[in-house]
Amino acid sequence: MKPIYQEYFRNNLPHIWCAGCGNGIVMSAWARAMDELKLDKNNVIGVSGIGCSSRITGYLDLNTLHTAHGRALPFAQGAKMARPDMDVFVFSGDGDCAAIGGNHFIHACRRNMDMTLIVINNNIYGMTGGQFSPLTPFGKKATTAPYGSVDPSFNLCELAIGAGASFVARGDIYHAKQLTDLIVAGYKHKGFSVIEVIASCPISYGRRNKIPNPADMMQYVKDHTVAKAVAEKMTPEQLEDKYITGILHEAQGREYTEEYAKLCERVQGGDK
Amino acid sequence: MAKVRLVQGNEACAMGALKAGASFYAGYPITPSTEIAEHMAEMMPACGARFIQMEDEIASAGAIIGASAAGAKAFTATSGPGFSLMQELVGYAAITEIPVVFVDVQRMGPSTGLPTLSSQGDIQQARWGSHGDHSIIAIAPNSVMETYYQTIKAFNLAEKYRTPVIFLLDEEIGHLRERFEVDENEEIEIINREKPTCAPEDYVPFENVAGGVPPMASFGEGYRYHFTGLTHNEKGFYSSALPVVDKFNRRLVDKIEKNVKDIFECEELFVDDCDVLLIAYGSVARSAQEAMNELREAGVKVGLFRPITIWPIDEERIKAACAGKKAVIVPEMNLGQYAREVERIVAGSVPVKKLCRVDSELVIPEEIIDMVKEVLK
Ligand SMILES: Cc1ncc(C[n+]2csc(CCOP(=O)(O)OP(=O)(O)O)c2C)c(N)n1
Ligand code: SF4
Fold first, then answer.
1. Mean predicted confidence (pLDDT) in A13-27
2. In angstroms, what is the span from residue A107 Cα to ligand 2's centroid?
3. Residue ranges of chain B assigned to CATH 3.40.50.920
4. B48 contacts in A (CB within 8 Å)?
5. Chain A residue with the nearest C-alpha to that of B48
6. B2-22 pLDDT, tens per residue?
7. Per-residue pLDDT tens for A49-108?
8. What topology does CATH give the domain B3-182?
């Protein structure tokens, strides 16, 4: 049997990421999910924005679109509308998705088109060298917050739920097997699935926040993530600097391309 | 058979788009372009085409490019403020060579300007609005009928040259209602992107082919490849190798500029038999034609050169048209955005006079007549 990376990755490695970067773990978790789902690669579209994390699409052996900063979701929705029969995975970073792409994000949640969005949250703008993002925790340091950030941060999953996404989950790079399971579940869910992944950028985030060593970063991710079932037994104080992981929300909503297809049928049947 | 109707310019654009095979529209409402979105929303479901109203113009531009990558013929319509927002992705469509049509129904700017009033202020934005060197195709019709036919041409050129095409209506044409006599079942040449015929493993999606336009596979056709807005090699992957970058950037420009004879279209009236040449496009060309007719009746030798294709410019053709004239007058609803091109092309060999209005009113024939008389004094 071929190793998974040979089946789902293009023959253009090495990748650009720094040693110890969490992006590779997300990429391999995705590949394991593909292996489990046994999707036809010709029928899968991969879309991403701009950032270190968004470079993922360059390595995936799919139909791929590496778009502009923040704009992955509009491209993905256009592609999905054109080919509702194709599967769509979108990859984005915390800056890409929650800052410059924030408006597209909430509207994509609201529309509930069937696709899976994986947001790699490394708490920082990695590609541009470490400026704070809307998901940088309060008080953490960045090149544009040298004394600690006073910018409040979003809870991306709550934002997604509030905006209408029908599947919302959070995983992390320490619990890689769980991440694969979440991606599989997100794919199987019909509607817009959001998976936030707590990841690591030892170079642009860790170094400035006293966790420069990739292994320590992993430990940091492990220490700051709590499975939903465990979190339910914890106090708000205990949960203060923790990310709750697992499937956080699952609902049946109207799927956009199906609704549009029904509308076409209605109009074509002369019933307006 | 053609039935005679009263049709608005924006509606003719919508009809032309469907005739051209548009299967996807994404847009955000803005005066004076909104009727196009409304017509598409009404007409597209009946033919199984897809319409979506996005959250803003950037999203609209992204959606049409994504749809086109997945095989749709896709377009959007907007006006100045929205067109400005779309510029980053105009460049994305150019560098990834994904065919799309941007309709810009121009209104008076800058900024919110005069939303309901006319302008031709986006001539240079259409060319240079997005950063970096690339080329572009832009078209400006002067009537409702021509809007229909040139919309079809806009899609054809986008597909043929794998490029964004900017379709420039001015508010005057977009909102004009006039006689429309078109047989919608008429046979018209419809061009679709050339598809690769080779095996997927042999496909080179951005190959430096002769003519400059490599065949394009759509998503889902078995050719799994990569689009990126990064400068890329022929395989489609990021490259910063000097010869690759240079060759790539030049091909992007050359594939349009070197095919200018195929792309460029214009109307010439009495160009060989005039002392004063008017160069005008869009709605203003109608005033220019009216002025020319009146003056010629009075024995004054005036001609009209009307570019229908705004970009790229067939410079040889303009140079030839202007040669030996006493003067060239360029009336337009901006402060000389096309006139500066004419000045550059004739390079001082003929006097070029600007006749500019930026008060939102159409340049009227009387103003043109007065200027012709002035230059002949
Ligand atoms: C319109 C635009 N603005 C700014 C940038 C610069 N830029 C590139 S990547 C990036 C931030 C990426 O951060 P994130 O999305 O968190 O991804 P990461 O690199 O951390 O994976 C920025 C600001 C850009 N490319 N385009
Ligand atoms: S800068 Fe950070 S996010 Fe980017 S590759 Fe390096 S470690 Fe990864």
1. 95
2. 28
3. 266-375
4. 264, 268
5. A264
6. 889 999 999 999 999 999 999
7. 999 999 999 999 999 999 999 999 999 999 999 999 999 999 999 999 999 999 999 999
8. Rossmann fold (3.40.50)
Whether chain B has a CB inside 8 Å of the CB on A227: the answer is no
- CA nearest A44 in B: which residue? B220
Contacts of B377 (CB under 8 A, 6+ apart): none
- Assign residue A15 the CATH number of its domain: 3.40.50.970
Ligand 2 site residues (CB inside 6 A) read A 17-18, 21, 23, 52, 122, 126-127, 201-204
What residue owns the CA closest to ligand 2's atom 6?
Answer: A18
Are A105 and A73 in contact by the 8 Å Cβ rule? The answer is: yes
Q: How many other CB atoms are there within 10 angstroms of residue A107's CB atom?
A: 18
Mean pLDDT of chain B: 97
Token digits of residue A177: 């097997």
Expressed as residue numbers, the domain containing A105 is 4-268
Q: What ipTM was predicted for this assembly?
A: 0.98
Whether residue B45 lies within 8 A of chain A, CB to CB, comes out as yes
92-111 of A, contacting B, C-beta below 8 A: 103-104, 107
pLDDT for A42? 98
Cβ-defined contact of B92 to A67 (cutoff 8 Å): yes
Rounded to two decimals, the pTM is 0.98
For residue range B116-131, list pLDDT tens digits in order: 999 999 999 999 999 9
Domains of chain A: total:
1
Q: Which segments of chain B belong to CATH 3.40.50.970?
A: 3-182
Which of A60, A69, A81 should we substitute to test contact with B (largest number of B Cβ atoms within 10 Å)? A81
pLDDT score of A1: 66
Smallest CA–CA distance from B237 into chain A, residue: A58
Token pair, residue B318, equals 């303009």
**Which of A89, A104, A67 lies closest to B98 in space, CA to CA?**
A67
Domain B266-375: which topology?
Answer: Rossmann fold (3.40.50)
Q: How far does residue A126's CA lie from ligand 1's centre (Å)? A: 8
Beta-strand (E) ranges in B205-364?
A: 226-228, 266-269, 276-279, 302-307, 309-311, 327-332, 352-356
pLDDT value of position A272: 64
Q: Are B72 and B114 in contact (CB under 8 A)?
A: no
Q: How far is the CA of A110 from the CAs of A104, A116, A196, B54, in angstroms?
A: 10, 14, 17, 12
Q: What is the DSSP string of B206-236?
A: T---TTS----PPTTSS---EEESS-B-TTS
A65: contact with B, CB 8 A cutoff? yes
State the Cα–Cα distance between residues B285 and A220, nearest whole angstrom.
68
Is residue B68 within 8 A of residue B98, CB to CB? The reply is: yes
Pairing, β A243-250 against β A167-172: antiparallel
Instruction: Check CB contact of A39 with chain B, cutoff 8 Å.
Output: no
Q: B89 in contact with A at a CB cutoff of 8 Å? A: yes
